[in-house]
């Protein structure tokens, strides 16, 4: 079945460090890929998305590139801030389907 | 902005009680979903609905049921609450037109069963 695997957390970095959160997927069709972010005490918010191979999604300084050859959608940010502390979820949906399949989430903590 | 509103942020219920979690969306979305979120397990789909009065089981439907009598409202029902249903419950909605827009989530209901 379709699945998403994220790097194990928690991840702790210092402010202004470079961030990578790995995400790989298994899908039988042609998935769209998403990153969601959950700030403390809140629901999930869509951070960025990519709908076809080689697309790059970007938002708030975060980027992720849809790599079909490596079935990956790694999240990156060049210089993190304390306000980026949150739980990040990678997810996929198959074209024409409505269900999202989520990874297990990665908790990120940024120290000043 | 699309809003998905969950009726309670925190609930404490006793074992064996019947529990109702309510979710309302205001963007005329066709699809609505209930997930539970547990540490280390991510989000797991309980039930979803593509239309009024329609429902489909997700990955972990046991011990739960749902109701969708109106397009904007999707209720999750715990028939007889148990301590292993203590969790964060998240409701979401999406347009039936294009799955590429992803979901809009509510803020969640943290349920504790004692």
Essential attributes:
heterodimer, A: 112 residues, mainly beta, six-stranded mixed sheet, B: 114 residues, three-stranded antiparallel sheet
In short:
The complex is a heterodimer of chains A (112) and B (114). Chain A has 112 residues and is mainly beta.
Principal-axes geometry of chain A comes out as: globular
Q: What is the percent of helical residues of chain A?
A: under 10%
How far is the first residue's CA from the last residue's CA of chain A?
41 Å
Mean pLDDT of chain B: 92
Rg of chain A from C-alpha positions?
13 Å
Helix/strand-derived category of chain B reads mainly beta
Cα radius of gyration of chain B in angstroms: 13 Å
Total count of strands of chain A: 12
How many helical stretches of chain A? Answer: 0
* Secondary-structure element series of chain B: EEEEEEEEEEEE
Largest interface: A-B, 25 and 25 residues
Termini separation of chain B comes to: 36 Å
SS element count, helices of chain B: 0
The string of secondary-structure elements of chain A, in order, is EEEEEEEEEEEE
Strand runs of chain B, count: 12
Summarize the biggest pleated sheet of chain A. 6 strands, mixed
Largest sheet of chain B: 7 strands, mixed
Low-pLDDT runs of 5+ residues of chain A are none
């Amino acid at each position: 079945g379709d699945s998403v695997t994220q790097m194990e957390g928690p991840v702790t970095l210092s402010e202004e460090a470079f961030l990578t959160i790995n995400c790989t997927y298994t899908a039988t069709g042609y998935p769209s890929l998403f990153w969601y972010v959950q700030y403390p005490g809140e629901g999930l918010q869509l951070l960025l998305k990519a709908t076809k191979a080689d697309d790059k999604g970007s938002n708030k300084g975060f980027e992720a590139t849809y790599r079909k050859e490596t079935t990956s959608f790694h999240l990156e940010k060049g210089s993190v801030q304390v306000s980026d502390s949150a739980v990040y979820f990678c997810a996929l949906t198959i074209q024409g389907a409505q269900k999202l399949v989520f990874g297990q989430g990665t908790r990120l903590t940024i120290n000043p | 902005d699309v809003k998905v509103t969950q009726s309670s942020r925190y609930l404490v219920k006793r074992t064996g009680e019947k529990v109702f979690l309510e979710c309302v969306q205001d963007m005329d979305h066709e699809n609505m979903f209930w997930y539970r979120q547990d540490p280390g397990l991510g989000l797991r789909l309980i039930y979803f609905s593509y239309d009024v009065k329609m429902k489909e089981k997700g990955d972990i439907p046991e011990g739960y049921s749902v109701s969708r009598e109106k397009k904007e409202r999707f209720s999750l029902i715990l028939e007889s609450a148990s301590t292993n249903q203590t969790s964060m419950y998240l409701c979401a909605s999406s347009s039936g037109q294009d799955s590429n827009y992803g979901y809009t989530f509510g803020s969640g209901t943290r349920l504790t069963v004692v």
